[in-house]
Amino acid sequence: MSGQAGFFDAEERLRWLSASGDPLERLLAVVEFEAFRAELEAALPRADRSRGGRPPYDAVLMFRVLVLQALYTLSDEQTEYQLRDRLSFMRFAGLALHDAVPDAKTIWLYREQLTRAGALARLFARFDAMLAERGFLAMGGQIVDATVVEARRPRLSKEEKATLRDGGIPEGWSKARTRQIDRDGRWTIERGRKATPPKGGAQRQAAEIAVPMFGYKNHLGIDRGHGFIRRFSVTHAARHDGSQLGAVLDVNNTASGVWADTAYRSRANVELLDRRGLVPEFQRAKPRGRPMPAHISRGNATRARVRSLVEHVFATEKRRMGLVVRSIGLVRATARITLANLAYNMRRLVWIEGRGAPA
C-alpha cells in the first residue's frame, strides 16, 4: 500500500507542478524532440546485445537529459542527482518513478559519443531548420558579437604559459598533469565601462574596469527579427572578435544589415560583407585625442539600440543558465557551448510562442 500511495502522491505533485506553470513541461509541448531521433541514432554506436547486459537508454531520452544539463549548467554528477530528486526533471526526461536513472558516467559517455561523431552541430542545424519550417525565418538583418565563457583557471608559471601558447608541453609534466590542464583555453582581459569619480571628489581620470578571464569565446550571430542564434563559432578566449565574422554570418537572413561593435570594423570585414551583398552597420570608434563628432555619436546611438538585442542572449546564458566550461579542451568546450546555444534557442521559442511576438 505504501508504494501505491507514493505513486498517487507523485501524480498529485505533478498535477500541482503543471498547474503552477512548469517551464519544462511547456518546453516539451513546444519542442518536438522526436524530430532529433534520426540524427541521434545515426551518431550513436549500435550496442551488441548478444552479450546481454542492461539495454541502452533511449537516444531521445538521453538528449533531453543533455538539454536539461545545458539549461541549468549542471555537472554530470549534479544531473544524476537532480534526475533522482526532482519530479519535473524526471517528467521532462521521460522517466517514470520505477525507471532506472542514467548515472553520471552514462551521461558523460553519451555526450562524448555525440561530440566525437560531430553530431551536436548537426543537431543545432536541425533545430534551426525546424524554426524555419514553423515560420521563424532569419529576418531583419543580423547582429554579431562575442562573449567570454569562463573555464577552470589553471595555476601555471610564466614559462609554462609561454610553452603552452607556442603549442608545446612544459618539460617535466606527467601524462596525468597533461590530461588535467586545459591547454586550449587562453587568458584575456574583459574590459567594462569606465568607473567615473564620485561627485564632489578630486578630479581624476576615470579608470577603465578590466577583469582577467580564462576560457573560451562564444562568437555568435542572431537574427534581428526573432533573436534566435543562427550561427556561432567557439574559439579560445584570446581570439579577436573580428576574425570570426565570416564564421557567424547567416547567408539565409532575408535582410542585408549586419550590426557589430568596433572590433569588427576592418577593411577585410567590410570587403567580405561587400562580396556577399551585405551592409555593414558597425560602430565607429572615438577619434584619439579629439571629441566624438556629433553625427558619429548619433549614428552609434542608433546602432547601439539594435545591437543591444544580443546582450539578452549573453545575459540569459551567463546569468540565468550560469554557463561555464567544466570540461578540458576546445572540443569538449565547443560541445558544452553548442548545447547551451541550442538550449537558449529552445527557451527563446517557448517565450515567443507564449507571448505571441518577439522582444
What would you note in describing this structure?
The protein has 15 helices and six strands. The chain is an alpha/beta fold and 359 residues long. It folds into two domains: 2-46 and 55-117, no CATH class; 137-355, Ribonuclease H-like superfamily/Ribonuclease H (Nucleotidyltransferase, domain 5). Strands 1, 2, 3, 4, 5 and 6 form a six-stranded mixed sheet that branches. Strand 5 (257-260), helix 12 (267-275) and strand 6 form a beta-alpha-beta unit. It starts with a helix and ends with a helix. The relative contact order is 0.14.
Largest pleated sheet: 6 strands, mixed
The structural domain count equals 2
Structural class: alpha/beta
Oligomeric state of shown chains: single chain
Provide the residue-averaged pLDDT. 90
Any low-confidence stretches, pLDDT <50, length ≥5? none
Brief digest:
48% of the residues lie in helices and 14% in strands. By secondary structure, it is an alpha/beta fold.
Give the SSE layout.
Blueprint: H1 2-19, H2 23-30, H3 37-43, H4 59-72, H5 76-85, H6 87-93, H7 104-116, H8 119-133, E1 142-150, H9 158-165, H10 175-180, E2 186-195, E3 207-223, E4 229-236, H11 245-248, E5 257-260, H12 267-275, E6 279-282, H13 294-307, H14 309-320, H15 330-355
Parallel strand pairs: 1-5, 5-6
Antiparallel strand pairs: 1-3, 2-3, 3-4
Helix pairs in contact: 4-15, 5-6, 5-7, 8-15
Core attributes:
2 domains; alpha/beta; six-stranded mixed beta sheet
